Every structure is written in structure tokens, then in C-alpha cells.
């Protein structure tokens, strides 16, 4: 048995595929590619497949991660890559297949590109006020949590959690935000919720918002491998 980490893109129409459907998609693709998966043991054996910090519906990802275990020790990971590339559906592209360096649960952050088009104010004014809000130590977002068996809405302070913010606009007046946010099993910030909150605070109803996760990062903000 050998561990394999699949790096893939999820773009275009594939951003509307739910996580459950994505699991089914890869399961069928791996079967078609005749890659021998290792199965969990116990009363209900299942093929081992583990996605690192799945994307929210509607977001694109340029370097997503799926961990599998290949039961054939003689199958090279380069062959796993080649086989998968031939059977994947449109808009899901295999980037690479490597041996994992870190456990998937050690993902600490994600780096996002957020593109916004709006027509309420000049690009310069909009960029300045968005940067100001993202830098505000009093910025909070609402998250649904549990208190006992009941669901409750909690206000989460984002002080210190938003990193590496860069904002600029192109000739088409589309604002681009690069930002690094916590993205781990214990605490994560959804960029969609974050930017929705910022736009509410400045009373801007955008023409559109497009979010892409560029990559996942470890605790040192290095690209996760």
C-alpha cells in the first residue's frame, strides 16, 4: 500500500458540484482508470479517500487536494496521474500526484483571490474602503454554531486572522483581492461570508463576486504539500 496525494483544479461548471458529488466523481474516475484503491477495514469497508478542507459550493480551486491509498505498491504515482488525466470530466483537471509530505489535517490556511465588480463608487475609493474594513480590528462575522442541541449564531472576531491582504483594480474596474484566511479543522473563515459582511458594512450591492482558492498553506504560510 502507498499513499498518494492528488492535486487538482476544480473550475468552470465544476464549481457547482457539491462535495458529495465530487466524491462520487473521483470514485468513478478512479474505477474507470483501474487504480487499485486500498479499502478501510471493519464491517463496512470503503475506499480510502480524504479531501483536504473541501471548497464551498460556487468557489473555484486551482490546487485542491485528495488523498488516496493505492494497494498496488508497484504502480508508480506518475502512472496514477496519467490514468486519471484520461478519465476526468471537463473542468476537473489533474495537476499532479505525489507522495504526501504532511498529513491533510495540518492544513492551516488558504489563499484566495476574490474578484468584485461594482458600480457604486470609483475603483480607488472602493479599494480603499474595502482595505480599511479588512484591516479593522473590530471586524466580525456571524457563524452558525451549536449550544447543546440548539443552533445559535455567534459573532466571531477576525482580529489577527486575516493575513496578506492585497487589493488592486484593472482597466475593466474589476477589483481583485488576494487574502490569506484560516482554513483548518478547528477554525476556518469562509471568504464568501467575509466579503459579504464587508460589502454590507459599506452598503455596496456588487454586480458579481467570483472567488478562487489558489492554494492551501501550512502553519508557516508555505504551500501545502
Written account of the structure:
- The protein is an alpha+beta fold.
- The protein folds into two domains: 2-100, Pseudouridine synthase I, catalytic domain, N-terminal subdomain (Alpha-Beta Plaits, 2-Layer Sandwich), CATH 3.30.70; 106-217, Alpha-Beta Plaits (2-Layer Sandwich).
- It has four helices and ten strands; from the N terminus they run βαββαββαββββαβ.
- The strands form two sheets. Strands 1, 2, 3, 4, 5, 8, 9 and 10 form an eight-stranded mixed sheet that branches. It has a two-stranded antiparallel ribbon with strand order 6-7.
- A hairpin with a 2-residue loop joins strand 6 (140-147) and strand 7.
- The two termini are 20 Å apart.
- The model has no long low-confidence stretch (mean pLDDT 92).
Amino acid at each position: 500500500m502507498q499513499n498518494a496525494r492528488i492535486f487538482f483544479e476544480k473550475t468552470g461548471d465544476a464549481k457547482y458540484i457539491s462535495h458529495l458529488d465530487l466524491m462520487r466523481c473521483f470514485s468513478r474516475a478512479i474505477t474507470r482508470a483501474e487504480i487499485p484503491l486500498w479499502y478501510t477495514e471493519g464491517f463496512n469497508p470503503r475506499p480510502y479517500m480524504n479531501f483536504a478542507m473541501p471548497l464551498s459550493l460556487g468557489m473555484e480551486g486551482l490546487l485542491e487536494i485528495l488523498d488516496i491509498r493505492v494497494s498496488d505498491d508497484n504502480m508508480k504515482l506518475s502512472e496514477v496521474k496519467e490514468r486519471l488525466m484520461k478519465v476526468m470530466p471537463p473542468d476537473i483537471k489533474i495537476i499532479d500526484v505525489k507522495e504526501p509530505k504532511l498529513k491533510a489535517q495540518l492544513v492551516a490556511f488558504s489563499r484566495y483571490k476574490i474578484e468584485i465588480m461594482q458600480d457604486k463608487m470609483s475603483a480607488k475609493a472602493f479599494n480603499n474602503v474595502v482595505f480599511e474594513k479588512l484591516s479593522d480590528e473590530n471586524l466580525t462575522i456571524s457563524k452558525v454554531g451549536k449550544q447543546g442541541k440548539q443552533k445559535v449564531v455567534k459573532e466571531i472576531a477576525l482580529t489577527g486572522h486575516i493575513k496578506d491582504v492585497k487589493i488592486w483594480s484593472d482597466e475593466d474596474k474589476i477589483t481583485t483581492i488576494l487574502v490569506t484566511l484560516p482554513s483548518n479543522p478547528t477554525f476556518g473563515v469562509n471568504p464568501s461570508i467575509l466579503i459579504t459582511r464587508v460589502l454590507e458594512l459599506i452598503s455596496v450591492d456588487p454586480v458579481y463576486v467570483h472567488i478562487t482558492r489558489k492554494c492551501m498553506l501550512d502553519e508557516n504560510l508555505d504551500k501545502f504539500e
